[in-house]
Amino acid sequence: MDDFLQTIALLRAKYQRPPGFNLFSVLRSSSDEIRLHSRFLAFLLDPKATHNQGSALLGLLLERLGIQNFDMAHARVDVEYQNIDILVRNRAGQAVIIENKIYAGDQEEQLWRYHQRMQAEGSSEVWTTYLTLDGSEPDEQSSKGLPVILVSYEAEIIAWLKDCIPLVAREPGVRESLFQYIELLQKLTSSDQDETYMNKLQEQILQGDNLFLIADLNHAFRAVLADLQLDIWERMAAQQASKYSQMGNPEITVTKEAVCAYYKRAKNSKYIGAYFPFTFMKGGVYIELNHRLYCGYYCDGGEFPEDRQRLLELSREIAPAARGSDALFWKYPALNVNLHTPSNEDLALLRDPETREVIAVGLLNDALSLWQRAHERFA
To answer: How far is CA 345 from CA 5, 348, 350, in A?
Structure first.
């Protein structure tokens, strides 16, 4: 075992190269669903865009997704139309909804509402797609049984982008941006390993009993991730009890069993967290996990529509750019780590106890700030 791990370490040191310059990462956060990913994907899909390929790039993606007989002659592409991340539609009454989820969670009946909205606007044929890093399924409450095409950045999108490269070969700006974007997606999906390095690894894994060792290591790796995540939650609980008592006693859904179930990808295991109900109105502030930790406001609009509307107005004041949205405000912390499929950079942060403390305190500070805003306004 020691010899095997030492060999792997030597291979990694020899073949793995540090990440290079990437324009997308410089300009935007790599997890920025709307301003980075949705806008760039929409640019490629738009027949009228300056990539000068007409509907060819759109056609390649529709073919890969199994969407047939879509009339591309008068296709139109919009970003954030009626809160739909990417919408492709035409004069023939056909529409393709692309709901883009890098790390954000599903809103209540989100996919169902979008589908109904397009039908109400006259689209007789609607395809609803759900785009995630790894092809995950949407929440049942979001789709409500609606047929959904699952799309992953790691599989379908990267493969489609590679198909696009020969078509834009004579457009150097577009061509180079595709290369850069593919590199970014490979980093986000942890598929950016050097090919020679991976081939050498495969050779080592097939020797002796190493294959069985890898299976054991995979189980151990998930257990370690669960322990590291649970440590962040425990640090939050300890800090909250001693320094954030004004927020009251939170309702906690985090247990060791829940965190382990998350890494086993058990059904309905994504949303675990701490919920701080207001004492002065319905709703509250939460800290929650959906691949990354984040915090925000919550309030059941069905039971308490007036209080939810009050929180929605406050949310729009905090984030004026989201004024057209019907979602309550939420945000990632300054130190934003992927706990689901951590990159090498994420792992380096997670293994450091001091960094886990910074993550825990940062989330509590953000949650307290939201709690105080609501208290000052409505108490």
So the answer is: 20, 5, 9
- Convert the pLDDT of each residue in 308-346 to its tens digit: 999 999 999 998 866 566 789 999 898 889 888 888 888
> Rg (Cα) of the chain, in Å, rounded?
23
> Token match 């906690």: residue?
252
| Element of type H or E holding 101 | strand 94-101
The per-residue pLDDT for 123 is 94
Residue 227 scores a pLDDT above 50? yes
Strand 284-290 and strand 94-101: pairing?
Answer: unpaired
Q: Model-level pTM greater than 0.85?
A: no
Burial 194-232 (b: 16+ CB within 10 A, else e): eeebeebbeeeeeeeebeeeeeebeeeeeeebbebbbbb
Residue type, 66: G
Task: Say what percent of the chain tops pLDDT 90.
Answer: 55
Distance CA 109, CA 253 (A): 22
Locate all alpha helices (DSSP H) within 244-352, ordered by sequence. 256-263, 305-318, 344-350
Instruction: Count the neighbouring beta carbons within 10 Å of the beta carbon of residue 143.
Output: 20
Question: Is 200 within 8 Å of 15 (Cβ atoms)?
Answer: yes
Is residue 370 exposed (0-12), middle (13-18) or buried (19+ Cβ within 10 Å)?
buried
Q: Is the pLDDT of residue 212 over 90?
A: no
